[in-house]
Design goal:
heterodimer, A: alpha+beta, Ubiquitin-like (UB roll), FAD/NAD(P)-binding domain, seven-stranded mixed β-sheet, six-stranded mixed β-sheet, about 25% helix, elongated, B: mainly beta, Folate-binding fold, two-stranded antiparallel ribbon, 1 helix, globular, binds zinc ion
């Protein structure tokens, strides 16, 4: 294996473990611990993508989260992951990645023609170019944009990986394990605080991994290893690598994404691929460091132009040279550290320093090493298309306006350093208003808003000594406030090279007659001219300039571009940066996968699944289930090749003819107890409850305060002060909250308690003309005659030794009973009913048959009580008491609710007696009327009447009570159907209700 | 996500609670003659103040008690929480 750009004696990758991977179909080798970026650079590969707008060639610009260019698409186990940063993704055996945003290939990209048409892609080109004519949008503009743009393709397949969520509480969360993070974590942990230390990268240490410093007589690397090892051994500390704290939310809630399996060929058994941590921290120390700023010059986006700190990290961490003829372009001392590192590794760099005559320890060291330095020099433009081949450089006048003696020099990379920008994103998200610091030309956090402090270079402290002192003190101070311990560790001595002031100059003027693109935002191709244009066109607010030009948008969120953009706006506007202000930082700091956000809450896990105690029986007997809220209910029991339609018809017919049994466990049940229970029910329901005797059930309707029906159901008086309330399956939780609201807040004087008992009881509805005969066999010791147990009666009975409750209530409109037993006996009850019911031709029936039975009886359910209907609309006005007050009564008098043509429920039968009417159809007078056709109402529920063997629907229509007998039309534009219908009574079967009382 | 102090259970994350609206609204007494306007105000009209707001939260995944929370609607700062029957300041 030859890797032309790999150094032998430096770096932290594991040389004993070779790893092969493919990039754009070609096989490459790297070492364990390499990122895709370091491994490709080691192999001399710099062209990895195309830019977003002009499709200009893209290489690597950084070495971490700030990377604007090297966004790749990863394929693993047939899963696809777009938007992977090559600078962060570690390689593993068999890794496959490819370039995005280029077609047909990264080397030959048709979109690159945009580069030559750039006059058509000025700032705001989306708003200008693709507007007119509107008919062009779908056919021409959109396909073009879709083809030419984007960062990869999301997979359309189900993601089989597992993602988890975790909640954690701690005294102190520290975001970043650089010198400030390590020092503060150590000081706080030693003082007894419960600490979480999060590091985004695989390796701990941050800048200590690459800087030439000494802490407590150890190198930076040795010291960080020692501290991390000790922290890991402490029971009050959680240390996490590959973990990015990306969001700072209210009340000190931070969210962190931990990448557990991303760097492995396959997620390990019993582990998720990623874990999202919701961390509630008493205090937060933000130690997220700083990001180097680019310098701006012609063609500064050419592959091979990169941050000087990145070049240094590629050498020191990965043992990789980004070039063999490096040009270092800097306005501060940081560039020198990179130059020195090149020199130590046998490569001769050339330094161009914008400053006139700076002097410092580092500059002296560079000079002593014999490194060539040109002061007052700048790069005018990079040359080369797919990789830097040379650079036009020049001497710059003292006023930084004029370029003198432009000459071309050969180089294969240009390492730029425009000084440092503190990463204040998390502090800003917490609500901390930042302030501009003139000394470092950047924003730093101001006064704490939440319980947060920013330390180290994120707080603008750029010397190690300051950083270490601040961090030890803060770690102690914060932990002391929480734990009240006084265990202070001593602060180690720090040895570092002293540096001198940076130059505020950052943007190289264009030479006369040249129009090089000088990029500010590398991910979105925003150049100096774009910002100039936006300002000429009248955009002033930095938020508007951002959106118009796309400066600072997309996946890198302007980590490298924001400040230079601000600087430019303030230069042109003759303002200072703080007046311009920066755009708002919002979470996430780095992209988070949708999988991690969703966690386990996908598919069946997106909500709990509740099963009745009889579920297994249903399953064994070929039930086809349907989701009813969180419950799984049998929709029908399939026999042979039956369809849903055939099965439900059979089941419903059998109820009307013989007897059927339906699992009604899912109905909401609430125990209402206390001396004032009757009074409470009287206020909650629209009808009268004070005189209901013990042992009787009553149907009730409850309203919201605005007069709309909230729910309906039967409530039974079990004993003097004990009522058993039932609610619909869907409204059970809301009704309980509603009752608690009134008891706790509105009428606390009522002595009543409510509690949900839904899960305590298993219920079976036994319905049909044979139901009493069956009951007599199930309960031989109980008198269930019509006299002893009349309609709406209640009895406690013995079911083969099991205590049971019998309610004579009916939803199907047939003679019917609901039997409840304690949940654990549910299956026993069910099997007994089926067994004993055989001689009466019993069949189980599901929700579909149940619907049919209730629809043709005109019994309302959720589809009629849909949050828009008052009792009148559902023909429930007979249950509205005129004498007493109740929740929502006052609203029933509103003018819209009492107008004469108020909507009312009716029955609808197709004239041809064969065409089913789609639910949701409109009822209209004239199907050919001009659109929008005035609608009379809508079809709420449809079934096939088993009584009359023809379709039947319920509808809620205007002036319903006077429409009976009219011939109208049901129209379904969705199904493209127009059906002539007759309006009939909603009580299609047994309108007098004789059967339930039989 | 807010961190709400339930006077019955202690500090709990917002996802255990359901929001219940303005806690200063008082339901008119039963059987009391009131004008349409008064009833309308009770059912529909709510202030949406920027700043301090006394609001109801229901600890549905906890003790199931309705509590009153004094919160700043713009900063989310929570000043004080009260039991349902506790007098507010
Ligand atoms: Zn509580």
């Amino acid at each position: 294996m030859s890797q032309d750009f790999r150094l032998d004696n430096i770096g932290m990758v594991n040389r004993n473990k070779k790893i092969s991977f493919t990039f754009n179909g070609k096989k490459y080798f790297g070492y364990e611990g390499d990122t895709i970026a370091s491994a490709l650079i080691a192999n001399g590969v710099h062209l990895v993508g195309r830019s977003f707008k002009y499709h200009r060639p893209r290489g690597f610009f950084g070495v971490g989260v700030d990377e604007p260019y090297a966004i790749l698409q990863l394929e693993r186990n047939n899963e696809r992951d777009p938007n992977i940063r090559a600078t962060e993704q570690e390689i593993f055996e068999g890794l496959e990645v490819k370039s995005v945003n280029c077609w047909p290939s990264v080397n030959f990209d048709i979109g690159a023609i945009n580069n030559f048409l750039k006059m058509f892609f000025p700032a705001g080109f989306y708003y200008k170019t693709f507007m007119w004519p509107p008919s062009f949008w779908y056919k021409i503009y959109e396909p073009f944009i879709r083809m030419a743009a984007g960062f990869g393709e999301a997979s359309i397949k189900h993601d089989k990986e597992r993602y988890e969520h975790k909640y954690e509480y701690c005294d102190l969360l520290i975001t970043g394990s650089g010198p400030s993070g390590l020092a503060s974590a150590y000081a706080a942990a030693k003082n007894g605080a419960r600490v979480i230390l999060a590091e985004d990268k695989p390796r701990y240490g941050g800048s200590l991994l690459t800087s030439d410093v000494n802490i407590g007589n150890q190198t930076g690397v040795e010291w960080s290893e020692k501290i991390i090892t000790e922290l890991k051994s402490m029971s009050n500390v959680i240390v996490k690598n590959r973990s990015q704290v990306f969001g700072y939310y209210d009340h000190n809630m931070l969210v962190m994404s931990e990448r557990i399996g991303d760097h492995l060929p396959k997620t390990q058994k019993y582990l998720p691929k990623q874990r999202l941590w919701y961390i509630r921290a008493k205090e937060v120390l933000i130690s997220s460091g700083s990001i180097e700023r680019p310098l701006v010059f012609g063609n500064n986006d050419t592959p091979g132009v990169m941050l000087s700190s990145a070049a240094k990290e590629y050498m020191k961490v990965y043992g990789v040279l980004v070039g063999k003829k490096p040009l270092i372009f800097t306005n501060n001392d940081s560039g020198y550290e990179t130059a020195i590192e090149f020199k130590k590794n046998g490569v001769n760099p050339l330094i161009l320093d914008t400053r006139k005559e700076p002097s410092s320890d580092i500059i002296s060291e560079a000079k002593n090493l014999g490194i060539e330095i040109k002061f007052s020099h700048v790069v005018v433009a990079a040359k080369g298309y797919k990789k830097v081949k040379s650079a036009d450089i020049a001497k710059i006048s003292d006023n930084k306006k004029d370029l003198l003696n432009i000459e071309n020099i050969e180089c294969d990379c240009i390492c730029v350093s425009g000084f440092w920008t503190p990463s204040i994103h998390l502090a800003s998200q917490s609500g901390n208003k930042s302030e501009f610091n003139e000394k470092i030309d950047a924003f730093i956090p101001k006064k704490s808003k939440q319980k947060e402090n920013t330390i180290g270079s994120a707080n603008g402290k750029f010397t190690l000594e300051e950083t270490i002192n601040e961090a030890f003190n803060k770690g102690y101070e914060v932990s002391n406030n929480i734990t009240e311990n006084n265990n202070k560790v001593s602060i180690p001595t720090v040895v570092e090279k002293k540096s001198t002031e940076h130059d505020k100059f950052w943007c190289v003027p264009l030479p006369k007659g040249k129009s090089y693109k000088r990029f500010l935002d590398f991910q979105n191709d925003v150049a100096v001219t774009d910002i100039e244009l936006a300002l000429r066109e009248g955009f002033r607010s930095i938020e508007h300039v951002k959106r118009y030009t796309t400066l600072g948008m997309a996946t890198d969120q302007g980590k490298t571009s924001n400040l230079n953009g601000l600087q430019l706006v303030s230069d042109i506007e003759n303002k200072v940066v703080p007046q311009v202000g920066h755009t708002t930082f919002r979470p996430p700091y780095t992209p988070v996968s949708i999988g991690a956000i969703v966690g386990r809450e996908v598919g069946k896990h997106s909500k709990p699944t509740r099963k009745s105690p009889m579920h297994d029986w249903h399953e064994k007997n070929n039930a086809v289930f349907v989701d009813a809220g969180v419950w799984l209910r049998p929709r029908y029991y399939k026999q042979g090749n039956e369809t849903l339609f055939e099965a439900s018809k059979r089941e419903a017919k059998n109820v009307r003819k013989n007897v059927g049994v339906c699992d009604v466990t899912t109905l909401g049940k609430i125990d209402v107890k206390g001396p004032d229970a009757a009074e409470f029910l009287n206020r909650v329901y629209t009808n009268a409850w004070l005189k209901l005797p013990v042992g009787k059930a009553r149907y009730g309707v409850m309203l919201r305060e605005d007069g709309i029906v909230m729910d309906d159901g039967t409530t039974t008086r079990i004993s003097e002060n004990h009522y058993h309330m039932t609610t619909t399956t869907a409204q059970a939780a809301n009704v309980l909250s509603h009752l608690e609201y009134y008891l706790q807040l509105v009428w606390p004087e009522l002595n009543v308690n409510v509690v949900s008992t839904t899960e305590q009881w298993a219920g079976a509805a036994i319905a049909g003309p044979n139901s009493r005969a069956l009951l007599m066999k199930l309960f031989p010791n109980t008198d269930v005659s019509n006299e002893a147990l009349p309609f709406m009666g209640y009895k406690e009975a013995d079911l083969f030794g099991i205590p049971a409750k019998i309610y004579r209530i009916s939803f199907s409109g047939e003679l019917a009973y609901e039997v409840n037993v304690e949940s654990d006996y549910g299956n026993f009850m069910w099997e007994k009913i089926i067994e004993v019911g055989k001689e009466f031709q019993i069949q189980p029936y599901g929700t579909e048959a149940l619907s049919t039975l209730r629809i043709e009886m005109g019994h309302v359910a959720g589809s009629e009580l849909d949050g828009r209907t008052i009792p009148h609309d559902a023909s429930l006005e007979g249950l509205v008491s005129k004498k007493k007050d109740f929740i929502g009564k006052r609203s029933l008098g509103r003018s819209a609710f009492i107008k004469p043509d108020r909507e009312k429920i009716v029955g609808v039968v197709p004239l041809d007696k064969t065409t089913s009417i789609p639910e949701g159809s409109y009822i209209v007078k004239d199907p050919k009327a001009k659109l929008p056709n005035p609608k009379l109402g809508h079809v709420s529920a449809s079934c096939w009447s088993v009584e009359y063997d023809n379709p039947f629907s319920l509808a809620i229509i205007k002036d319903g009570k006077n429409m009976i007998g009219q011939k109208l039309f049901a129209m379904s534009p969705l199904k493209n159907k127009t059906i002539p219908v007759e309006i009939v009574s909603s009580h299609y079967v047994d309108p007098e209700g004789k059967r339930v009382r039989a | 996500m807010l961190y709400i102090f339930c006077p019955h259970c202690g500090s709990r994350s917002q996802n255990e609670f359901a929001y219940g609206g303005d806690a200063t609204v008082k339901r008119p007494e039963l059987n009391k003659e009131i004008s349409d306007q008064e009833w309308d105000n009770f059912v529909y009209l709510r202030k949406s103040p920027r700043g301090k707001h006394l609001e109801l939260w229901h600890h549905i995944s906890g003790c199931r008690q309705w509590i009153k929370v004094e919160r700043d609607t713009s900063t989310h700062e929570i000043f004080k929480t009260y039991k349902a029957d506790e007098l507010t300041e």
